[in-house]
Amino acid sequence: MRRAPDARPIQARSQVAGAATVTALLVAGLWTQEIVDTFVFGGQLDRYGIQPRSGNLSHILTAPFLHAGFGHLIANTVPLAVLAFMSALRNISRFLAATAVIVVVGGLLVWLFGRGGSTHLGASELVFGYLAYLLGVGWWERTPAAIGIAVVAGVLYGSVIWGVLPTNPVISWEAHLFGFLAGLLAALWLHGRRPRAR
């Protein structure tokens, strides 16, 4: 009797390809935006960052995708790509939902509680959000895969958690802190209800 072919390797390859595609589109979009902003608009698109309690509230949707120059973008690109890929690896729909929570909830908290008289922007809100999301999924889901990914994320980027503290006046530690909290909220919402053991 012939055994049916195992579909798991095909499914795994499909998940990897999907996560890589979503991550590549995200990073390419950020770089395209910064190139256009720099060479076409002269950096004027940065005004669509978050200006706490005074700027347009809709800027919470644009701020994580803007950067104050290429140096800022370069600093965020690698951790964003790694953590976004790891977050999207298991389920792209949940990754997109988590991204929406991080952008909206994290950005709203920055708008409400961030330092006034300043503009907050940059993908570091997403970086901290994805890190917290991966750690939260490992904690609430507690499957071997989720725990393994959380451990890898923690080993690679756990040290950045210090960025939630106000150590540098030109860095938006508020976006780091509230992005991290929003990532935990996304993990709780999407993975916090484990089935009961019978």
UniProtKB/TrEMBL annotation:
Pfam families: Rhomboid. GO terms for molecular function: peptidase activity. Its main location: membrane. It is found in: Membrane. Residues 56-191 form the Peptidase S54 rhomboid domain. GO terms for biological process: proteolysis. Keywords: Hydrolase, Membrane, Protease, Transmembrane, Transmembrane helix. Its EC number is 3.4.21.105. It is an enzyme of class 3 (hydrolase). It is a multi-pass membrane protein. The chain crosses the membrane at residues 65-88, 95-114, 120-140, 147-165, 171-190. It comes from the Bacteria. This is Rhomboid family intramembrane serine protease. It comes from Deinococcus taklimakanensis.
